[in-house]
């Protein structure tokens, strides 16, 4: 094991794992799948919920906004509040909270109760991600960390490709309450899976506010946080409006938008695992390639995406590049802060979730005040700025 790998293991557990716990990695991936599905499921249910609970679709959108903002706060706060609590027990408790929160959503008699249940979903998302994002170094040997991280983050792509569409379809056929109830049942399954296969995970270094603050003195962490903010904000400012872009800029029929977004998700899943393999060889170069690809894909859409074929091809290229973002940047944080993986990861999760909301908000303002094309230029400019930031960290030995 390398000295960096030893330091990481010592910082995140009492000793480096002697074997690979792939069943535990898979159970955590199931957890991330459900978290992302729970966060985004209301997007496809806004009209039904608004009609049933007598609120506008704009107000119903709080079901998405609230948990994202709460997750951004909970990501660094939950590890601080639980102190030295065994991380296995923490993950079980958070998945239990997810189970109860979605059951409460299914039974909510009013919109106020529904939004309150979504606050609990946000707490579960932020807390679970803060711990789960750094678990690969606890569950597998050093050589397999990039692969395990890719599997854990594969749950994100799977949620976009399968979880949200299937949940929306179920809600359309059986009602939105059934969709939330099914999500609660699946969260219970994930809880039982974690209970069965997750080993004890002692917190050898409790996260304190001082430890969180110290991460900003680490140049590698600062670059990772900045790159995350720029990439995710830029991506969601443009991707939030990808449907009108496909129709208005590429002339694609509305009936083909759904299948193309499915293809985007599949490309993202492929990109996740391609990036995972490349990260094992050179994290810095891999993240740099991802940022450069995103910086090119979004502006090129305006030049080469003016036909249905060009628009579809660039959308898939965009999805392939963005699919490597989560696993790439999380691996970056692990390498940049080997002595404080959980603290650095919790900050990363907070910025990631906050950037989703800010990106969508910025995109909406730009589309309303300027043009649809402007959000694609913004997305490309943000990715280019991230690439320049990543390039500046090329001398960091841990990231090579």
Automatic annotation (TrEMBL):
CDD domains the record matches: MFS_NepI_like (cd17324)
Membrane topology: Multi-pass membrane protein
Origin superkingdom: Bacteria
InterPro entries: MFS (IPR011701), MFS_dom (IPR020846), MFS_Efflux_Transporters (IPR050189), MFS_trans_sf (IPR036259)
Protein name: MFS transporter
Pfam families linked: MFS_1
Main subcellular location: membrane
Transmembrane intervals: 21-38, 58-82, 89-113, 119-141, 148-170, 176-198, 219-241, 261-280, 287-304, 310-334, 346-366, 372-390
Domain called Major facilitator superfamily (MFS) profile: residue spans: 24-398
């Amino acid at each position: 094991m390398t000295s960096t790998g030893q330091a990481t293991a010592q910082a995140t557990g009492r000793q480096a794992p002697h074997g690979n716990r792939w069943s535990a990695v898979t159970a955590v991936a199931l957890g991330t799948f459900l978290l992302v599905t729970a966060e985004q499921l209301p997007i496809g249910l806004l009209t039904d919920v608004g009609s049933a609970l007598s609120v506008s679709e704009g107000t119903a959108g709080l079901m998405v906004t609230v948990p994202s903002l709460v997750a951004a706060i909970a990501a660094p706060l939950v590890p601080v509040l639980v102190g030295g609590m065994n991380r296995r027990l923490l993950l079980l408790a958070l998945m239990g909270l997810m189970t109860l929160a979605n059951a409460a959503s299914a039974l909510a008699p009013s919109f106020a109760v529904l939004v309150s249940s979504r606050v609990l979903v946000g707490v579960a998302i932020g807390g679970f991600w803060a711990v789960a994002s750094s678990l690969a170094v606890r569950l597998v040997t050093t050589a397999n960390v990039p692969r395990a991280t890719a599997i854990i983050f594969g749950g994100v792509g799977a949620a976009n490709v399968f979880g949200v569409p299937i949940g929306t379809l179920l809600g359309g056929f059986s009602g939105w309450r059934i969709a939330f109830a099914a999500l609660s049942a699946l969260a219970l399954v994930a809880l039982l899976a974690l209970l069965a296969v997750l080993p004890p995970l002692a917190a050898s270094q409790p996260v304190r506010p001082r430890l969180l603050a110290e991460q900003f003195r680490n140049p590698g962490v600062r670059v990772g946080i900045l790159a995350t903010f720029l990439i995710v904000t830029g991506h969601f400012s443009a991707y939030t409006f990808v449907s009108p872009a496909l129709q208005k800029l590429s002339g694609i029929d509305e009936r083909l938008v759904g299948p193309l977004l499915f293809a985007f998700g599949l490309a993202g899943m492929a990109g996740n695992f391609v990036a995972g393999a490349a990260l094992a060889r050179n994290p810095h170069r891999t993240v740099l390639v991802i940022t450069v690809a995103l910086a090119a894909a979004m502006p090129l859409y305006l030049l080469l995406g003016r036909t249905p074929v060009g628009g579809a091809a660039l959308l898939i290229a965009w999805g392939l590049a963005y699919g490597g973002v989560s696993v790439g940047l999380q691996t970056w944080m692990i390498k940049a802060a080997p002595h404080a993986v959980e603290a650095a990861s919790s900050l990363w999760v907070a910025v990631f979730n906050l950037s989703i909301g800010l990106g969508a908000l910025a995109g909406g303002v730009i589309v309303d005040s300027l043009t649809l094309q402007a959000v694609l230029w913004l997305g490309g400019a943000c990715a280019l700025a991230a690439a320049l930031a990543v390039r500046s960290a090329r001398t960091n030995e841990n990231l090579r």
